[in-house]
Specification:
Layout lengths: L27 H15 L20 E8 L5 E2 L2 E2 H15 L2 E13 L4 H17 L3 E10 L7 E11 L15 E4 L5 H11 L15 H7 L6 E4 L4 H13 L2 E5 L7 H10 L12 E5 L1 H12 L8 E7 L7 E4 L5 E3 L13
Parallel strand pairs: 4-5, 9-12
Antiparallel strand pairs: 1-6, 2-3, 4-6, 7-10, 7-11, 8-10, 9-11, 12-13
Helix pairs in contact: 1-3, 2-3
The structure holds magnesium ion.
Length: 348
């Protein structure tokens, strides 16, 4: 598809340094871009074809399908970058729905003037993350917008995965007494982005938890969790408020059990924010019937990324004015705020 309605024959400088509008205009430069930058990374073994759609012939249904867009700023941050985030974001949405992710699409909106070296680094990262997650990128799109109409790179990924039994029924299946777990320390992604964007000097610097949740889901799948959710924007608090709303039940937490890394705790104290409200990109919340909750915690502890998985609360039948509460220290239960919006814009 062309950016302008009319294809004109004006020669375009064949820039090898930066993205120019012609990279998105469907002509020679786009074909070369796809042949040199996309095909070797995403289809190294298959003959490259300029086709309108990928055909997927080896999927077994029922399938799960998800999409997500990525506008994170800065593009590179401790623990990840927009490319890695774009793969893990969609892979994680499929994984927590109970699917094995198989195929992704990758759509790029590029700003005129973007250094090609920056784009190459992002594409390398997309390819590495896709290999890590055993997903294949089989479809894509490239658009270029004039300088100032985007901020370097925006990405969108869509993904297809095969659902595996037992598929988690979701928050509607929550029962009083169910235990609430998190798979790792909370708030790492949002704090890493904030520190990188605002050049805040924390020692040690906080790193994003950006990673695939598929190994964690696989580790507890056989224990039939009631609900799983990756705790992205709005953090763990937003997930629990959604679950309380959908189930009509209450949820209560013990603050002392919430795993928080030293650097996130320090940053949150300094900034006056609750780590439970901060976004994660490789950490999930799990609701598990009480009799299998300890087994789920033990299974997660077998994984390197889930060594701090913890049971931090439970579902209650009674629900007062506050659907989600937390006991802080030795004090009384307090309401856990429902975030109105993300405290930080453009974190994913
Ligand atoms: Mg999600």
């Amino acid at each position: 598809m062309s950016q302008r309605g009319i294809q004109c024959a004006v020669p375009v400088a064949d820039s090898t340094e930066r993205i120019v509008l012609a990279h998105g205009e469907g002509g020679r430069l786009l074909r070369r871009f796809l042949r040199e930058r996309i095909a070797p990374r995403f289809a190294p073994d298959a003959p490259w074809r300029f086709d309108d759609a990928a055909t997927l012939s080896d999927l077994r249904g029922p399938l799960a399908f998800a999409t997500d867009s990525f506008v994170v700023s800065p593009l590179f941050f401790p623990g990840g970058d927009i490319g890695r985030l774009a793969v893990h974001g969609t892979v994680n949405d499929l994984a927590v729905r109970g699917a094995i992710p198989r195929y992704l699409s990758l759509a790029m909106i590029l700003e005129e003037g973007l250094p090609l070296a920056t784009l190459d680094a992002i594409l390398d990262s997309v390819a590495a993350a896709a290999r890590e997650c055993a997903v294949r990128i089989v479809a894509g799109d490239t658009k270029v917008v004039p300088r100032g109409a985007a901020d370097g790179v925006f990405l969108n990924t869509a993904g297809v995965g095969e659902l595996v039994d037992p598929v988690p029924p979701g928050p509607i299946a929550l029962r009083p007494g169910d235990q609430i777990l998190v798979s790792g320390p909370v708030g790492r992604h949002g704090i890493a982005i904030l520190a990188a964007r605002e050049h805040l000097a924390f020692d040690p610097p906080p790193t994003s938890d950006c990673a695939s949740l598929l190994p964690a889901v696989n580790a507890i799948r056989h224990l039939a969790p009631s609900a799983l959710r990756d705790a992205t924007r709005g953090g763990v608090a937003a997930v629990l408020h959604e679950w309380a709303e959908e189930s009509g039940l209450g949820i209560t937490l013990e603050e002392a059990r919430v795993p928080v890394s030293a650097e996130v705790r320090g940053a949150c104290e300094l900034l006056g924010i609750d780590p439970l409200h901060i976004a994660n990109e490789g950490t999930m919340v799990v609701a598990m019937p009480a009799e299998r909750a300890q087994a789920a915690r033990d299974a997660l502890h077998q994984l390197a990324l889930c060594q701090q998985a913890e049971i931090l609360g439970e579902v209650r039948s009674s629900r007062g004015v506050n659907a989600v509460t937390i006991r802080r220290g030795l004090g009384r239960e307090q309401p856990l705020d429902d975030p109105q919006g993300a405290p930080l814009p453009r974190i994913c």
